[in-house]
Amino acid sequence: MTTETEHVDSVKTYAVVWIALLILTALTTGVAYIDLGPFSVVVALTIAVCKMLLVALFFMHVRHSTKLTKLVVLGGLLWLAILLSLTMADFATRSWIGA
Amino acid sequence: MSFRLFPVEASSISAEVDQLLFFLLAVAAFFTVVIFAAILFFAIRYRRRSDNELPRPIHGSIPLEIVWSVIPFGLSMVMFTWGASVFFRERRPPDNALPIYVVAKQWMWKLQHPEGQREINELHIPVGRPVKLTMTSEDVIHSFFVPAFRTKQDVVPGRYTTTWFTAIKPGKYHLFCAEYCGNNHSGMGGWIYVMEPQDYEAWLSGGTPGATLAENGQKLFENLACANCHKSDGTGRCPDLTGLFGKDVKLADGSTVKADEGYIRESILRPEAKIVAGYQPSMPTFQGLVTEEGVLQLIEYVKSLGPNPGAGQAEGLAAPGSR
Amino acid sequence: MVSEPHVESLALREQFNSAEQQKDASSLGMWVFLITEVMFFGGAFAAYTVYRSIYPGVFGAASRTLNTTIGALNTAVLLCSSFTMVLAVRAGQLGRRKQIMAFLVLTLILGMVFLGVKGYEWNEKYVEHHIPGPSFQMEGPGLQDHAQLFFSLYFAMTGLHAMHMLVGAGLLSWLLYQTWRGKFSAAYYTPIDMVGLYWHFVDIIWIFLFPLLYLIDRHGH
Amino acid sequence: MTTAVAEERETYLNAGHGVKSWLLTKDHKRIGLLYLFTITFFFFIGGVFATLIRLELLSPHGNLVSSETYNKLFTMHGVVMVFFFLIPSIPATLGNFFLPLMIGARDLAFPRINLLSWYLLVIGGLFAIFAMVAGGVDTGWTFYTPYSTSYSNTWVIATALGIFVAGFSSILTGLNFIVTVHRMRCPGMTWFRMPLFVWAHYATALIQVLGTPVLAVTLVLVLCERMFHIGIFDPALGGDPVLFQHLFWFYSHPAVYIMILPAMGVISELVSTFSRKAIFGYGFVAFSSVAIAVLGFLVWGHHLFVSGQSLFAGMVFSFLSYFVAIPSAIKVFNWTATLYKGSISYATPMLYAFGFIGLFTIGGLTGLFVACLGIDVHVTDTYFVVAHFHYIMVGGAIMGYLGGLHYWWPKITGRMYPEGWAKLSALVIFLGFNLTFFPQFILGYLGMPRRYHVYPDEFQVLHVLSTAGASVLAVGYLMPLIYFMWSLKYGAIAGRNPWKATGLEWQTESPPPVHNFDEIPIVTREAYDYSGTVGQEVQVG
Question: Chain C contact for D213, CB < 8 A?
Answer without folding.
Answer: yes
